[in-house]
Amino acid sequence: MARKIKVKLILELHEQGISMNEISNTRKISKHSVCTTVEKAKQKGLSYKDMKDMTDDAAYRLVFPERHAPDSIPCKRIPSNIVSIHTKLEPSILKNEIIFFIFIHLI
Predict the structure, then answer these.
(1) Which of 4, 10, 50, 93 is least enclosed, having the fewest CB within 10 Å?
(2) What does the alpha-carbon distance between residue 93 and residue 85 come to, in Å, rounded to a whole number?
(3) Could you tell me the superkingdom of the organism this chain comes from (predicted)?
(4) What share of the chain is helix, strand, coil (3-state, %, to 5)?
(5) Is residue 8 predicted with pLDDT exceeding 90?
(6) What Cα–Cα distance (Å) separates residue 101 from each residue in 45, 48, 66, 86, 94?
(7) Is 41:5 a contact under the CB 8 Å cutoff?
(8) Residues 6 or more apart in contact with residue 31 via CB below 8 angstroms
């Protein structure tokens, strides 16, 4: 599992005037992660002051909501009659993309 970016630390150091390259080198965080974090926060109008009292996880969710997976993802059970469903469908309509779509959404 990938480690979460230290959003609060990056923004705090950047707002203190430390360059993105220096943050990357001294904190062993990739330059891409540092730049992405600063840019995303800037786009959203966020600063370290806005998240100073938040947990690291909450700050990460605020800057990167698209990367946050819910704590629990409900898992759908694949029906035992999936083969019969497949064979009853009209062959001319049934394509690999449709099968793939159905399978992905049942998991």
Answers:
(1) 93
(2) 13
(3) Bacteria
(4) 60, 0, 40
(5) yes
(6) 37, 41, 21, 13, 11
(7) no
(8) 20, 21, 24
Determine contact, residues 27/18, Cβ cutoff 8 Å: no
Instruction: State the sign of the Cα–Cα–Cα–Cα dihedral 60, 65, 69, 70.
Output: positive
> In the structure encoding, which two tokens stand for residue 97, read together?
């993309």
Q: Which two tokens stand for residue 86?
A: 């497949």
Question: Between 4 and 55, whose confidence is greater?
Answer: 55
**H-helix or E-strand spanning residue 63:** helix 56-63
